[in-house]
Design goal:
- The longest helix is centred in the C-terminal third of the chain and has 18 residues.
- Helix 4 packs across helix 5 and helix 5 packs across helix 6.
- The protein has a 7-stranded mixed sheet, with helices on both faces.
- It has 214 residues and is an alpha/beta fold.
- The chain is built from 6 helices and 7 strands, in the order H-E-E-H-E-H-E-H-E-H-E-E-H.
- The protein has one domain: 3-Layer(aba) Sandwich (Glycerol-3-phosphate (1)-acyltransferase), CATH 3.40.1130.10.
- One of its GO terms (biological process) is phosphatidic acid biosynthetic process.
Length: 214
C-alpha cells in the first residue's frame, strides 16, 4: 500500500473544505465500494472530477489517480499530485510503464481511479464527428489482469459554483470474457459497458444525453 502521509491529510481536509463550499456534493452508493482492489471508473465531464471523487471518499480509503501528463509539466503541481497518489499517463500512446504502475497499485492492495473516456466530455466538447469517443479498452485490460473489482461511477456534468453535484458509486460490474485474459473485442466491450453503466447511474446515455423516459 502507498504510505499514508501528513501532506495528504492536509490536502484532504483543507481542499476538501474549500470544495465542499464551492461544489457541495451528494454522495450515493458508498456501500458498494470494497476496501481494497477497486478500479473506480467515472464519466469525465470536468477537470474537477478527480478532486471531487477522491475528496468525498473516506480519508483512509487508499486510491491512486491516473492523470493526464499535461498536469505534471508544472513541477510544483507535479509534486503535489504525486504526494496524493496520482501518476501521469500519456494519452494516445502505448505507455507500458503507466500500465504497470496502475496494475501495481491494485495488486499492492490499494484502489485506482481511471476515467474510461480519457478526456473531458461535456456538451459536445471532446466529441469526434458528433459522437462521444468510445471508452479506452486499457481500463478493462487493467481490471481483468489484476482481478480488480470494477465500479462504475457517475459524476454530474454541471459544476456550477455553489450548485450541488451528485456522485454515485454503482454496484460492482461483473466482466465476461474467454480464457485468462480475453480478446481485444471483449476488453473493448467491457470498457464500453462500464462507461455506459456509469452514465446510466445518472439517467444519462454515454456522452451526457438524457436516457429516454428519464
Amino acid at each position: 500500500m502507498k504510505p499514508f502521509n501528513l501532506f495528504f491529510v492536509f490536502v484532504y481536509y483543507l481542499v476538501g473544505l474549500v470544495t465542499r463550499i464551492l461544489h457541495p456534493t451528494t454522495v450515493e452508493g458508498m456501500e458498494n465500494l470494497p476496501e481494497h482492489g477497486a478500479l473506480l471508473c467515472p464519466n469525465h465531464s470536468s477537470n474537477w472530477d478527480p478532486i471531487l471523487v477522491v475528496l468525498r471518499l473516506p480519508i483512509h480509503y487508499r486510491v491512486h489517480i491516473m492523470a493526464k501528463e499535461e498536469l505534471f509539466r508544472n513541477p510544483v503541481l507535479a509534486w503535489i499530485l504525486r504526494k496524493v497518489g496520482a501518476f501521469p499517463v500519456s494519452r494516445g500512446s502505448n505507455d507500458i510503464e503507466t500500465v504497470r504502475t496502475a496494475m501495481q497499485s491494485i495488486k499492492s492492495g490499494d484502489n485506482l481511479l481511471i476515467f474510461p473516456e480519457g478526456t473531458v466530455i461535456r456538451n459536445g466538447i471532446g466529441y469526434v464527428d458528433g459522437l462521444p469517443p468510445r471508452a479506452r479498452a486499457g481500463v478493462a485490460v487493467i481490471g481483468v489482469r489484476t482481478g480488480a473489482t470494477l465500479i462504475p461511477v457517475f459524476v454530474d456534468g454541471e459544476k456550477k459554483l455553489f450548485h450541488r453535484t451528485r456522485i454515485i458509486f454503482g454496484k460492482p460490474y461483473e466482466p465476461h470474457y474467454t480464457g485468462r485474459r480475453g480478446t481485444s473485442e471483449e476488453m473493448q466491450k467491457i470498457a464500453d459497458d462500464l462507461l455506459e453503466e456509469a452514465y446510466a447511474l445518472g439517467g444519462q446515455a454515454v456522452g451526457g444525453a438524457p436516457l429516454c423516459g428519464k
